Every structure is written in structure tokens, then in C-alpha cells.
Amino acid sequence: MDTMNSDLLLKLRKTDLHLHLDGSVRPATLLELARQQGSGTTQLEAIFRAPPDGDLKAYLERFDIVLPLLQTRTALQRASREILEDCAANAAMYAEIRFCPLLHTRDGLPAEEVVEAALEGLAEGRQATGTQARLILCVLHGMDAGQADRIADLAIAYHRHGVVAVDLAGDEGRGFDLAPFRRAFGRAKAEGLHVTVHAGEAGPGENVAEAIETLGAERIGHGTRIFGDPKAVELAREHHVGIEVCLKSNVQTGAVAQLTDHPLRRMLAFGLAATLCTDNLTVSRTGLGEEWLLAARDLALTDAELGQILANGFAQMFMDDALEPLGSG
Ligand SMILES: [Zn+2]
């Protein structure tokens, strides 16, 4: 691809539908937060190095370093605003940012305030950049039904203020028992919230089918192993399930052995609604522009394929209503 085409590709207005708040805080901000909170900065060094390819453990450990710094309203609000600014700088017209609010209550911040801080940061970012954003709340593998319910309650309470969906995240490799989450996801769905589920990344393609059938997933995070289960491919195609593809992250976590093994082109050929996302701006050391360049250059996708990805992103957005200001009930 020549420079002019790359330039055009970078300027295209896009969507980023899979982006974790805690994995996307600017390194300089993390450093400043660590200094302010007097927690020392030495353990932050890992954040400044790109994670090694194929090492899920090293990838996940980076989140343990970040989380203690994101336990205040100010830190969460600032991180959210800056992430949206960085999305806008990468030509994102619209972004869905996700996180698990219960991971930010360690120092006593009520979960409601955690969600409000993120929403306020996104509102500030939207005002500054014009880029629209919505929030997705994550339930994590290993949580019990009560915790999942708590997250569904928060999503329902803040639905009209900018929370659009619930997600199931965390370590898919530790087992894919969806039973504890069924009720919470069902309640969220009944209240008009959307559902996305991380599946077929560290686990088999069968997990994708299960996420669609059991939790009503309308989008799948990663789904790199979907072709291991023909039924999952069929279900995803039949129900127009969006596939949130994160190329760089998939190599770093070992979901694919190398970039050229990624099934993105095959997904498109099978009529799956794949779109390009970033996963974690800081932990993956990536940006939306970079992900698109990887698809165009390294995977050599055609203009028609790239156009399809772009259209899929806009078609798969969970945003459906105008926002009501916080505090309006
Ligand atoms: Zn993810």
C-alpha cells in the first residue's frame, strides 16, 4: 500500500467497539497518578514496554499494575476523557469503552460513582472532540451470580445516561461456565441493554456458540477460534453477530500464533460482521489507525474488504438513544 492510500486509510472516520478503559490509560497519566498517590513508579516499567507476543500471562499482569491507580473519581474521569481524546486523534467517530466497575471500589468508592466518573469523563471528551462514546459494563469470569446481578443493576440504572451493554470478560481459559451469568444478562437484555461476550479467544470456537445461545450475545469479542466450530459460524452469520477483531492484541495474547494466521479475511468471506477494534491502547501499545494499517498492509485486505469492515463497525454500534444528563433520573 502506498503512502497516499495509507494516509486516506488513517483519515477515514471509523468506530472502535472494543476498548478496555483500564488497558488504555495514557502511560504519562499512569506515571502522574502513581506519583500523586505516592505508590512509587517502579512497577509501572512493564507498562512502558510492549508486551511479548504469545504471552497471555504477561499481558494480563499489566492490568494488575494499573488498577490500584484507578480507584478515585478524579482518576477515572480523567482516564476516560483522555481515552476518548486518543480515539478521536485516531479518527474514531464513535467508541464504546468497557470496564468492570467493581474493580474500582477497592478504596471504598461506591460503584455508582465509578460509573458516573467514567460517564462524566466521556462527556468531557465528547465536548472536546466531537467523538461520540458509550459505556459497556463487564462481568468477569469467576464472579458469582450476585456480582453479575450487581453489574446488570448498574447497567440498567445508567442505561439512558450512556451505558449501552453488558459484556463477559476475564480469563476465558479458566472455564466457560455461563450458568452464574444467565439471569443477570437476561435481565439486562429485558431492559433494552445489548450484550457482547469475549469468546473464542483463549477458549474454543464452541464458546462462541454458547455465548450466542445462552447469553444472547449480539457481538463477540475476538472470536478468533470461531472456525473450530461450524455451528458457531452458522449462528453468528444467521444472527448478524458482530465480531470485534483486535489484531495486535490477538498476537500478544497468543490467540493467533502470528498475524498472518488471523482469520479476519476468512470471517469476511463467510459473511461474518467483523470489525476492527483496539482492545487496549496502552497495554497493547496500539491505536485504531495502527490496527487498520495492519489489516491493509500485513493481511493485505482489499479496499472492498476494508470497506466491509468499516460498514460492519457502524452497523454494529450499540448506541440507540440520545443521552439524558446524569441526575435526571
Ligand atoms: Zn477485550
Structural description of this entry:
The protein is α/β, with parallel strands linked by helices. Helix content is 43%, strand content 15%. The chain has helices at residues 3-11, 27-36, 56-66, 73-89, 111-129, 145-157, 182-190, 206-215, 230-238, 247-252, 264-269, 288-298, 303-315, and strands at 14-20, 92-99, 132-140, 163-169, 194-199, 219-222, 242-245, 273-276. It has an eight-stranded parallel β-sheet. Strand 3 (132-140), helix 6 and strand 4 (163-169) form a beta-alpha-beta unit. It is globular and about 50 Å long. It starts with a helix and ends in a 14-residue tail after the last helix. The mean pLDDT is 94. The protein binds zinc ion. The site of zinc ion has 6 residues, from strand 1.
